[in-house]
Amino acid sequence: MPVTVSYPGVYVEEDASPSLSINNSATAVPAIIVGNDDRLVKGSDNQQCMRITSWLDYVKNVKTILGEDYAFDFGSSDDGHRDTAIRAYFENGGGYCYLVLGNCATARIPCYDDISLIVGQGVLDVDSADIGTLCQPGTGRFAIMDGSQSEMTSTYKPAWQSNPCVAVYYPYLRANWTSNNIPPSVVVAGIYCSVDRTRGVWKAPANVYLPANYQPLYKVIDDLQGQFNSGLAINMIRNAVGGGTVVWGARTLEDSDNWRYIPVRRLFDSAERDIKSALRSMVFEPNGQPVWEKVRSAITNYLYGLWQAGALVGESEKEAYFVQIGEGLTMTSDDIAQGKMIVNVGMAAVRPAEFIVLQFTQNVGQG
């Protein structure tokens, strides 16, 4: 209510109503599993994880914990494999991340709201209970895992369970600065970070070239990829026509139309995470029309931004998304009496053009 002023001085006008806006959070923050050797992470604040921002930051932390004489030789030791993986991650565009012990991943990763990617890095098996616990719809986390370390053939039978929050990559890679085979998951995790920064989480992290010195350990031909590009899909890293190594696949381990593609699943993860975070400020607010309108307006503005950026399909906002909230629409009187605020949010996510079919017709008889 406006303050009535009648004499010179300082007047206070208070507005107790909460404001609500939804911010875009970081979409690609990996937790890289580094085995069960606790020497590295024991020096960090929580005794379980190490947050690093760059390769140089990693070097500094390792030398602080393991000694200034520590040698980064990228050899066949456990240290060498770990160092190789972290360097490959940052060389391929990776941003800040966490190093997490494999034996405490399920306990520690959920403690970090910003972790959105789990990177197996040749350590965590895609069949393990860790993936089922950490990466499911609603968790906001997506797993990047490694396929077979040996050469796959047409008789290879993956035993993995269908999961829309997991993507698998094959084959391992080699680079001229290490004698180790490099897990594809760390390389692709760096690409996820780079694509998210430059294009957005809705852009498939595929048709992206690796640095020139990275080469697939095994050759992938069309027939092999065709066999593993449906059902429990495995995404291939291949030598491209004309040279270069390219990520050539963007599928999850779910073959349904809804969650087949990585960017669709990750876009929903990102939106769910952002909206959930913003709505925490509405807990214990009056569950009535004024608050409902604030929630509807905030989510609508957020989705409008996604649509404008190209993340959603539709020539109009109505085609691209909807937000519903209200008694008789999303809530009953009983829901409201029980303190439930229910919001329906719909998005028409953009799907990648995985198959581009050119149809040529010879127009005979035209002069």
Characterise this structure.
- Helix 2 runs parallel beside helix 5.
- The chain has ten helices and 13 strands.
- It folds into two domains: 30-263, no CATH class; 287-367, no CATH class.
- A hairpin with a 5-residue loop joins strand 10 and strand 11 (245-248).
- The mean pLDDT is 89.
- The strands form three sheets. Strands 2-3-1-4-5-6-10-11-8 form a nine-stranded mixed β-sheet.
- The protein is α/β, with parallel strands linked by helices and 367 residues long.
What share of residues are in beta strands?
A: 5-15%
Quickly give the structural class.
Answer: alpha/beta
Widest sheet: strand ordering: 2-3-1-4-5-6-10-11-8
Q: Terminal Cα separation, in Å?
A: 79 Å
Order of helices and strands: EEHHEHEHEEEHEEHEEHHHEHE
Binned, the helix content reads 25-40%
Strand segment tally: 13
Supply the number of structural domains. Answer: 2
Rg on CA atoms, Å: 24 Å
Globally, the shape reads globular
Question: Which segments are poorly predicted (pLDDT under 50) over 5 or more consecutive residues?
Answer: none
Question: How confident is the prediction overall: mean pLDDT?
Answer: 89
- Our count of helices gives 10
InterPro entries: Tail_sheath_C (IPR020287), Tail_sheath_structural (IPR052042)
Organism: Paraburkholderia domus
Family: Belongs to the myoviridae tail sheath protein family.
Domain Tail sheath protein C-terminal: 255-361
